[in-house]
Amino acid sequence: MTRSSQRMRFGAFIAPYHLLKENPTLAIERDLELIALLDKLDYDEAWMGEHHSAGTELIGSPEVFLAAAAERTKHIRLGAGVASLTFHHPLIVADRFSQLDHQTRGRIILGAGPGQLPSDASMMGIKSTDQRRMMVESLESIIQLLEGEVVSRDTDWFKLREAQLHLRPYQTPRMEIAVAASVTPSGPALAGRLGLSMLSLAASSVAGYSALPEHWHICESEAAKHGQHVSRDRWRVAAPMHIAPTREQAWEEAKEGTFEFVKYFCSLLGDFAPPSMTQVANADDAIKLWTGEGLGMFGVLMAGTPDDAIAYIENLQARSGGFGTFLFLAHNCASFDATRRSYELFARYVMPHFQHSNTARYNSLAWVGANAPAFIGGLTQAQEKAVLDYETKK
């Protein structure tokens, strides 16, 4: 089954990643500026993550951030990418996102995950082995609440007593919900069982790329088992990308930030950092690693031209069988000026290719060219007649 003929969508999935040495206030402001730019460039979606440790991914509350972003934008849909459900009571999550759905006039998407950083869970006394189970329990309850049900439920970490929302979502019956998926089958299986969207965040890694077709098969199979419907048009695939007029320029713009990125990963992973990362000695080594072997689950960077980006996305489409939305996995490795240019080049030359924005324009030019003899001949005759008519009246 391939994707339908609906308009392909594009956006950015923003963790975000910011160097420890830079001003955090200005870094958050820059993220807001980026989303405002994406809105002006006609991107469809922007996602903001939730993290609570390690110093680089600064946003602790995607809801607060997205509320501010909504005030600076007009059209772009705003996603929590993702809300760490194991860290919050499900009634509070449902209530806050219902409110945010009203404030954005229905532009909100709820991305759901167990929480990425084990250090976040550790600070809250949560075992990593419990997180996926906890996420499922929470998500089931959140869906019921958002859809207007009265919910009573006892678990070992939350209780609901005839719980119900006093403010239903702006969208009916609720906002779109997307489940994060990386390499394991748990995300696709949950998305299928509950009839939700799927958000593939490791598509450019070796394991994630290989798993794309199987993940959709799992999602569809689970949906069929549980009487649900899933659509490829609601499948989002994310990969890191930076584009410039030439490949050489794209590499040059991203390499210093990539070196810092590699050092961040080494600090984050400690003794578990692979030799491929710990042996990186300079920026040139770093960009070669990320565009070649890749950076683990963060995948392989596509650094090149708009034509390279088109070929890359077409390859992802072919491998997966088709998806509805491609998301930049935002990384902040290039300067903000270079990053803006990258998103603008993509909007000008890559998005129209997949959205068939210029098909009618090309067809019109071809039609005019094919009929040029008649058109030019007619124009010449009209000019000659005008001259003759003028001379006759003299």
Keywords:
394 residues, alpha/beta, TIM Barrel, 2 domains, 8-stranded parallel beta barrel, two-stranded antiparallel sheet
Protein described:
The chain is of the alpha/beta class and about 400 residues long. The chain folds into two domains: about 10-360, Luciferase-like domain (TIM Barrel, Alpha-Beta Barrel); about 360-394. About 50% of the residues lie in helices and about 15% in strands. The protein has 14 helices and twelve strands. The protein has helices at about 25-40, 60-70, 90-105, 120-125, 130-145, 185-195, 205-225, 245-270, 275-280, 285-290, 305-320, 335-355, 360-370, 370-394, and strands at about 10-15, 45-50, 75-85, 110-115, 150-155, 160-165, 175-180, 195-200, 235-240, 240-245, 300-305, 325-330. The strands form three sheets. The protein has an eight-stranded parallel β-barrel, surrounded by six helices. Strand 2 (about 45-50), helix 2 (about 60-70) and strand 3 form a beta-alpha-beta unit. Helix 2 packs parallel to helix 3. The radius of gyration is 25 Å and the shape is globular.
